[in-house]
Design goal:
This protein is an alpha+beta fold. It folds into two domains: 12-102, 4'-phosphopantetheinyl transferase domain (Ribosomal Protein L22, Chain A, Alpha-Beta Complex), CATH 3.90.470.20; 114-218, Alpha-Beta Complex (Ribosomal Protein L22, Chain A). It contains six helices and ten strands, in the order E-H-H-H-E-E-E-E-E-H-H-H-E-E-E-E. Strand 7 and strand 8 form a beta hairpin.
Length: 219
């Protein structure tokens, strides 16, 4: 599935809506045994999330013509290890799982993150937000955007998911200043040095009960 509002045209995006309180292990049990092993000691809810997100990833690769490429294993800091020649990102939260993939000849790195469109738990915003980002949240709330602080959190996560596979370096919440724009776009200004690029661009949407953020670094 392609989402032209959120992702580059070369990417394929697949998602699953599930029962928030349900636990369906169907997709987990259909994974390659090496993928299952990554969460074999986890509780069933974690297995279900993992299985659904990996199913989305394999489906996205299939839509790109990358069949029979083997399991998507896990690298440094949990980074998904995509088949040679492809890049992508996964996300899961209660009731929602998704993945996006693209050929590296078109896109160097991708990030996607989704969260319920509701306020962050008390005290979290102060830990993740830079001073300049707080004024943006006031504008978003005034425009009727649900879960504006959750949107900022998602944006930070999506930026990190695109950054880490490219650099293999940590990026803290304070290491990027996010410019969230009312037109559904964003620019993350990278404050760490050295950096291979000065900023990462992205897009965001509120879809139903979820905020979804994508980032992309084009080839």
């Amino acid at each position: 599935m392609q989402d032209e509002e959120l992702f580059p045209s070369a990417a394929r995006y697949v998602y699953i809506l599930s029962e928030p309180k349900g636990v369906d292990l169907t997709n987990y049990h259909e994974l390659d045994p090496l993928e299952q092993l990554l969460v074999s000691q986890s509780v069933d809810r974690r297995k279900a999330e993992f299985g659904d997100a990996r199913w989305c990833a394999h489906r996205a690769l299939h839509e790109l013509g990358a069949d029979n490429r083997g399991p998507i294993l896990r690298g440094e800091r949990g980074m998904p290890l995509w088949p040679e020649g492809f890049t992508g990102s996964l996300t899961h939260t209660k009731g929602f799982r998704a993945a996006v993939a693209a050929p590296k000849s078109k896109v160097l790195a991708l990030g996607v993150d989704a969260e319920p469109a509701e306020p962050l738990p008390e005290g979290v915003l102060e830990q993740i937000a830079r001073r300049g980002e707080l004024s943006q949240l006031h504008k978003l709330r005034a425009a009727g955007i649900k879960g504006a602080d959750r949107l900022l959190f998602c944006a930070k996560e999506a930026v990190y998911k695109a950054w880490f596979p490219m650099t293999h370096r940590w990026l803290g919440f304070e290491d990027a200043e996010i410019d969230l724009r009312l037109d559904g776009t964003l620019v993350a200004y990278l404050l760490v040095r050295p950096t291979p690029l000065p900023f990462i661009e992205g897009r965001w949407r509120v879809r139903g009960n979820y905020v979804i953020v994508s980032t992309a670094i084009k080839a």
